[in-house]
Amino acid sequence: MSTARVKRTPPPSGLIVVDKPAGWTSHDVVGKMRGIAGTRKVGHAGTLDPMATGVLVVGVEKATRLLGHLALTEKGYDGTIRLGQTTNTDDAEGEIVVSAPAAGVTVEEVAKGVEALTGRITQVPPQVSAIKVNGERAYKLARAGEEVELKARPVTVSAFEILDVRREGDLLDVDVSVTCSSGTYIRALARDLGAALGVGGHLTALRRTRVGPYDLSMARTIDQLATECVILPMAEAVAAAFPRRDVTEQEAGLVAHGGRLPSAGLGDGPIGVFGPDGTLLALVEEKGRLTRSLAVFVP
Prior knowledge:
Elements: E1 14-20, H1 26-37, E2 42-45, E3 53-60, H2 67-70, E4 75-83, E5 85-87, E6 96-99, H3 107-116, E7 119-123, E8 132-133, E9 136-137, H4 138-143, E10 153-168, E11 171-180, H5 186-196, E12 201-211, E13 214-215, H6 222-227, E14 232-233, H7 234-241, E15 244-246, H8 249-256, E16 271-274, E17 280-287, E18 290-296
Parallel strand pairs: 3-12, 15-16
Antiparallel strand pairs: 1-3, 1-14, 2-3, 4-11, 4-12, 5-6, 7-10, 8-9, 10-11, 12-13, 16-17, 17-18
């Protein structure tokens, strides 16, 4: 009997918007989606902590080359900050290291603290994060008992809204909605809000509602995807996320071979280049008077 393997037809290249369940790592989701999509060529844009749920953008086949660019787009979150307790991870997965009564903290004081953390700010990432320190992930060093010194980084919190405030004895739970730049840690916002109010704080719940143009309305659970794996075609994905530039047949031939085009004044960041027939050709960026290829997708 023949033992030859049947070669599977790879899925179309594109994006899958997953509603990540709590308790799963982003890597867990990628592993599951490899089986569902039927390909090893799967990656994700922007890690979500295991505690968090919500939008995780997954790329399959050629779309994996989009993920690094998508990870840099603006993101939206809903979360709950608990004031009155500090943890060693800045979220509910860590151990409580300091407690201070938050019963005397007013809603007005919380609002002022939130306002101070809105806009262009500097933020020290959590000790337990994936940032590399001397070649090692910070979370590995922290869990090994080493004191990790991370540098403050500029981030942009374009919206930080209070949705609800609930008193739980000496604790204060604050439901918030945050819109922020790539690299912003919501755990760090919780920590810094609690520190500013003098009572400490940490994140108890987090749900990512949006990555760039991809939001919860487009997201499907793992179970739903196992029944029907919906893949957003690359052309649609790029047109939704980046400025679009349509080119002539002659220009398309140039772009397909990594050639440069005159800049069209479409701004900073990736630009999707499409041929006369609507085919996605490449991602480019404008550098001075010319474009530079970031990724070419045509054979």
